[in-house]
Amino acid sequence: MNAKDLKVVVKEKYGSIAKQSLSNDKIKSSCCGTSGCCEKIEFSMIGDDYNTVEGYNPDADLGLGCGLPTQFANLKTGDCVLDLGSGAGNDCFVARAIVGETGKIVGLDFTDMMVAKAIENNRKLGFMNVEFVQGDIEEMPFSDNDFDVIVSNCVLNLVPNKHKAFAEMIRVLKPGGHFCVSDVVTKGELPETLRSDAEMYVGCVSGAITRDQYINIIHDNGFENVAIHKLKPIPIPYKVLSKYMSEEEINDFKKGETGIFSITVSGYKSL
């Protein structure tokens, strides 16, 4: 599947999740949201608990995250913040609680219906300094040096060209600005049968690269003071692993020789 086809898959699946949310249907909490999306993988990669976080809005939480990037993003009052893959606006509203009325929050999402859901949520909250834009992370519709901070939650692994994504991030950040993202990475070589499944791709697994590759891409695009704040394994049930792996591969997975992890990482653009 080429990059264009993968983007179509992502847009269709996340559009379906947003459509269910807009019609007030129940959303299954998992990295890929709905049970239809996760039909083949049958497990959840639930992110950190937002319930006690200031600014949290349950209506904007579709269960699509794998971390809590705002916890480590060093946001300050008055910051201009960009959320990549903003979904229904969950992390945007948390960031808004930190930056206050003098700050600005912009959410960028690939899916029209997700943007519509986020705008609806923001209308209910009445924030005048929060906006949502439809666009591609690989070609962001923003000028150079626009933002103080970029956050993202379980999205960049879905972007086919991660080099372009991080190149765009450093372009739109102000000098001295920084990013903090939560994402999915791997350790060791996952079986091709797992990686090639489009449903697994939308489920935040097949699009993932190794932790070392991920960190190298960040460095290659000019970011400095790169730091990993959190790294935790994502457990997968045996009945799921057995669909994609041999017994030997499953044993290696359980020993930690291969695996799937949630990572929260930050980096700075030079002054």
Automatic annotation (TrEMBL):
The record ties this protein, via InterPro entries, to: Arsenite_MeTrfase-like (IPR026669), Methyltranfer_dom (IPR025714), SAM-dependent_MTases_sf (IPR029063)
By its UniProt entry, which Gene3D superfamilies does this protein fall under? Vaccinia Virus protein VP39
Which GO molecular function annotations are given, in alphabetical order? arsenite methyltransferase activity
Q: Which keywords label this protein?
A: Methyltransferase, S-adenosyl-L-methionine, Transferase
GO BP annotation list: methylation
Tell whether Iron is among the UniProt keywords: no
The EC code for this enzyme is: 2.1.1.137
Family to which the UniProt record says this protein belongs: Belongs to the methyltransferase superfamily. Arsenite methyltransferase family.
Q: What is this protein called?
A: Arsenite methyltransferase
- Species this chain originates from: Petrimonas mucosa
